[in-house]
Design brief:
The chain is an alpha/beta fold and 145 residues long. It contains two helices and seven strands.
Length: 145
């Protein structure tokens, strides 16, 4: 069963890793109030999202606020609602928000083609301020190192 989450604003969007180096599991997490959504991902996916956001942020004015470090830690318990597949990223100049869209991984056959292209995938859409995107990038650099 697919689920759809759309946060037009969040208290935090972060990445974290659980486990020992070399055998860690990586997670992306969006939080607003008491609601949180966690998505399991690969280290390379988290790094790629951060790299893209850095390129977008380089073309924009510098962030103005300093994020609270505690907000960047994963909230527990960590329970992923899906495993990350395709990622969509963008910037909306009219709202000055960065959009991150995370979609569920789908099953593929031996040739890499989707088994069921009609199946609904779970989706998490998160709108971030430039400050939040910048904090995500800084934190991701520490977590994936």
């Amino acid at each position: 069963m697919s689920v759809y989450f759309d946060f037009d604003e969040v208290d935090a969007f972060t990445v974290g890793a659980l486990g020992e180096p070399g055998a860690r599991a990586f997670y992306l997490q969006a939080r607003r109030g008491t609601q949180r959504v966690t998505v399991k991902c690969e280290k390379q996916q988290a790094s790629a999202i951060s790299d893209y956001l850095r390129r977008v942020l380089n073309d924009l004015p510098a962030p103005t606020e300093k994020p609270i470090a505690a907000a960047m830690e994963l909230a527990t318990p960590v329970e992923a609602v899906f495993v990350l597949g395709p990622v969509g990223l963008g910037y909306d100049r009219s709202t000055d928000m960065v959009l991150v869209q995370l979609e569920e991984m789908f099953e593929v056959d031996d040739e890499g083609n989707p088994i069921d292209e009609e199946a609904d995938r779970s989706t998490l859409r998160v709108h971030l301020t430039r400050d939040q995107a910048h904090a995500f990038c800084r934190h991701t650099g520490v977590v994936v190192a």
